[in-house]
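Key result, reporting period 2: structure in, sequence out.
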């Protein structure tokens, strides 16, 4: 498996089927919150050097991604944080250390971008926190959500 940084424009057509599969497996409120990526927002973040898309390819085929939004911390002026937007590895490629290798490559890319702290979120109903714990991450928050519609 190969890992690299790619542009949203370069992967747009390839990533859509994976995003749909990802959403089908992970999303809880599919009936009220349809998948509708704001591609212009991703392009804007990329243009502002505030986005990194790390892809996983097997024999050239896109099989996964880890997408991070990068920015200064508004609480700690000398820090640059990366927050995972989404990450995914197609189920048939989740073997061995593939997921950890994707995240290790992402860490390298983010460090080169000046990031000092990385945040990865996991779903309580699809908890992959053990992967992050094995990589030295610590659980630091629990997020609560409520629909207002």
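The corresponding designed sequence is given below.
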């Amino acid at each position: 498996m190969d890992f690299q940084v790619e542009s949203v424009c370069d992967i747009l057509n390839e990533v859509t089927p994976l995003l749909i599969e990802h959403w089908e497996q992970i999303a809880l409120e599919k009936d009220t919150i349809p998948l509708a990526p704001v591609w212009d927002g991703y392009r804007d973040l990329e243009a502002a050097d505030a986005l990194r898309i790390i892809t996983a390819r097997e024999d050239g085929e896109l099989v996964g991604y880890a997408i991070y939004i990068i920015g200064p911390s508004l609480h700690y002026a000398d820090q640059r944080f990366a927050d995972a937007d989404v990450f995914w590895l197609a189920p048939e490629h989740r073997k061995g250390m593939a997921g950890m290798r994707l995240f290790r490559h992402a860490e390298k890319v983010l460090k080169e971008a000046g990031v000092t702290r990385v945040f990865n979120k996991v779903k309580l109903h699809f908890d992959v926190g053990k992967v992050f714990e094995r990589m030295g991450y610590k659980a630091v928050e629990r997020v609560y959500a409520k629909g207002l519609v």
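The beta strands are 2-6, 51-58, 61-72, 80-89, 117-119. The two ends are 42 Å apart (CA to CA). This case is discussed further under Risks and Mitigation.
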